[in-house]
Please model this.
Amino acid sequence: MRKTSFGLALGLVGLVIAACGSSSSKTCVYGMTVSCACGGGVTATQTCTKGGMFGVCHCPGTSGAAGAGGPSDGGGDTATAGVTGEAGAVAGTTGEAGATGDAGATGTAGATGGGGAAAGVTGGAGTPGTAGDAGVDAPVDHGTGGVGVDAGGDAPAACTPPAPATDYSCTSMARFTAAKQVVDGIGDEFCDIPAVHYTAANAPYREGHTGGSPPPATPPPEDVTFRAAWSLDAFHLHAHVNDPSIYESNDDSMFWNGDEVEVFVAGGPNFTVTYPAGTDANSMEVGIVPPNGLTGARAIVYLGQSHVALDAQYYAARLVPGGYEIELQLPWAGTAKPTMAGDTMGFYFGLSTQDTPGVGREEYASLPVPAVAGSTCPISPPLPWCDDRTWCHPILE
Model:
């Protein structure tokens, strides 16, 4: 019995000593504290954890001396690190267990030995990457239609310069290619649509204050650049007007009697506009005025000889430095809807201008007006608002 007891005692002593260098012994009772051996004949204690293993042996280690620092400019040889203290080495082994927070705390002693080695040479900054090409994703939603922007708003969309031709939209109409149109007046979805540009001085058709009257001897300063396109669902347009002074009619039945953009649209060739009947169910005449002072943008659509406010989701107008911009997305009216490239549609565009307060419209500048005979229009020459034969009939691309 004594031999057995003595052997068992030696086994426990060996176990206790081994526990100073390892936390994997599973022969202890939680909370039990025993002595453990450290180097140089020094002893310490360790406590049994909830996992049935002795924790780290809390040996009083000696920290390694810090190495000499390298030169201040980062060049030269790096100083030799100090010798790692004994306690740090033990802590590193114990840290694998992860069973108790005590193991990690002791490791700070050995870490001081690396002081000198940390003074390496700082790497140079990387070269900035080249910017990627612009994507073709749908534009970010800029807001809802119909709401005007105060003067000094965002700059116009940076599209390519306009083509010199003034009759593009009278002969052909580009297809709208953007994945989505956000009706906000900005027009960034129209940059790949050919532009039509004319001034109040060189417009294909010009008249003065009333229909058929001569234009002013000194042309107004306004000019317009617009981009028009079609899709199966709607007609799309963005226009930028350079206009140093904006005056508009307060009478929504007479938007034409001031600064205004006027658009005529039909989704196919089967439509009629006569006087006094006005537009039929397959055609639209829309007038839009920009925001001005406390008054927001406004738009009307003529139905026959009556008119109603255009739903704000279909248009937007905003002030920009030096003028204003308008944008439209008009669902096709009635049964006149394009089906494919090669179809024909009806279209016309005009700009009313006013530069002197209190005088009303000073000039109407628009696309060409062909001569027609036998019109029911009450004015001469007949114009698109009273005779569909004066509209352009572009072929859809």
Observations:
- The first strand starts at residue 33 and ends at 37.
- Residues 1-26, 62-145, 147-152 have pLDDT under 50 and may be disordered.
- Residues 2-19 form the longest helix (18 residues).
